[in-house]
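Budget justification, computational time. The allocation requested in the original proposal was used primarily to generate structure tokens for proteins on the priority list. As evidence of use, we reproduce two of the resulting records. The first is shown immediately below.
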Amino acid sequence: MTQQFNKVALVTGAAGGIGAAISERLARDGFTVIVNYAGKDEPAEALVRRIEAAGGSALAHKADIADAEAVRQMFDAAETAFGGVDVLVNNAGVMALAPIADSDDALFERQISVNLKGVFNTLREAARRLRDGGRIINLSSSVVALLQPTYGVYAATKAAVEAMTSVLAKELRGRGVTVNSVAPGPTATKLFLEGKPQAVIDHLAKLAPLERLGQPDDIAGAVAFLAGPDGAWINGQTLRANGGII
């Protein structure tokens, strides 16, 4: 595997689930990883310890990506510590499901704040400050194509992320920066499994022709491809990592 020594990857929402898997994979590939999180300190600090124990380099940084000033300060800290950022992985997100008729303002505003405004904040900062030749990888969702009932607000935020992905890829012309998104299908994370009856989980696991749920490492592998040398000619695209559900 070609190593990416001295390159820095910032992963948002990285303390658990898919974000943690992405962080560990990029660290194995030689990136110094900035583990962004917004909740409790211990999961992020434990992830940093795991990465370092495996021979990698990582630093935890607490910041709510919905706060534009916090995002600016996070990039400032990365530049102070490492000289800059080469890869941004926009993984942080929240999900709350309800029919549109039953979706209250709080459900709408929270998802817009994190999933859309938060991604906008990090994209804006990266567009200004990412080192030339860098990579931006946004996490979308295959619900943008599946469009199931109760996913209206969540799917809308992720559709917006895919639109910004394609637009920013064109706006960064001339800098050698690629901008892509990865759209997971049902993936066995705490966020996905929590509150679902086993019968529902089993049904979702059978939807893909490969007849299983995705694993966080499956998504991390797709992100690592786009962040690494083999993904250099992929730009402005959405990679649907869902086992063939759609």
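The second record produced under the same allocation is shown here.
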Amino acid sequence: MTELAFVALGSNQGDRRAYLQAGLDDLAALEGVEVQGASAVYETAPVGYTDQPFFLNAAASLRTTLDPEALLLGLQQIEFRHLRQRQIHWGPRTLDLDLLLHGSHTAATPALQLPHPRMLDRCFVLAPLCDLAPDLPHPCTGRLLGDHYRDLDCRDQLRQAGRLRLPG
């Protein structure tokens, strides 16, 4: 069965845009994954650990036959290939890929939480996600993603910084 999934992409090390594009291209190369769309790219300040460069963030919509755990493993392998380091919680990274939504699946395990537990509180996640699916209901709240985004005060937190090229 094919599911619609959404992945957040982020980078604040090296050539940030090149890392995002490479991440999107690598997503498209995963067996069982077809990239459907990519949001605008946004530049945002870091959250949590703030002594680091600004991020570029985007989101991708996927059609996938992979289950959530297999897709998460594929995302982690892509991060590893792009030299993702996990030395500081919420610290600098070449490429960060977060599974936000996978159909209407919910999960709460040490390895996987679906929907992503902090997505509704973060402008840098909801802005690109709403570029792709503002009318999609959140699996737990039932409210539209666009409504959640409008509830956040995102003024001065985002700056559009272009687009990524869709693979293929």
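A brief technical remark on that second record: The longest strand covers residues 55-64.
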